[in-house]
Amino acid sequence: MAKTMTTKYDIAEHLRTPEEMAAYLEACLEEANGDAAFIAKALGDIARAKGMTQVARDAGLSRESLYKALSGERSPGLDTVLKVLHALGLKLHAEAVQKNC
């Protein structure tokens, strides 16, 4: 019987358009349940898809600090998140949520 070869799935290879990137971030925001590191990792996936060096340059950050901030191992500051979003051509939206009282 032949062995099956597998490779690690990398979402960054499948995020090709700004619309796909925005949809991915939106889905991650819904799934995060308040986990800022999860959102940072999602931004890292998008930044890798777009090109980490260019995103770092556009955000005014070093490439190394961008990798660390978006690794998913820690939560970056809001200023970093906003710089990265701007560099990626994305923006956050707010909407009112109905609370069950």
Plain-language structure description:
The structure is a single chain. The chain is mainly alpha-helical. It has one domain (15-88). It contains five helices and no strands. The chain has helices at 18-32, 36-50, 52-59, 63-69, 78-88. Helix 2 (36-50) runs parallel beside helix 5 (78-88) and helix 3 (52-59) packs across helix 5. 24% of the residues are buried. The mean pLDDT is 92.
Indicate the low-confidence ranges by residue numbers.
none
> What is the N-to-C succession of helices and strands?
HHHHH
Average pLDDT, rounded to a whole number, is 92
- What's the Cα radius of gyration? 15 Å
Helix and strand composition category? mainly alpha
Count, helices: 5
User: How many domains, as an integer?
Assistant: 1
Tell me the distance between the termini. Answer: 59 Å
Strand content: under 5%
Shape designation: globular
SS elements, strand count: 0
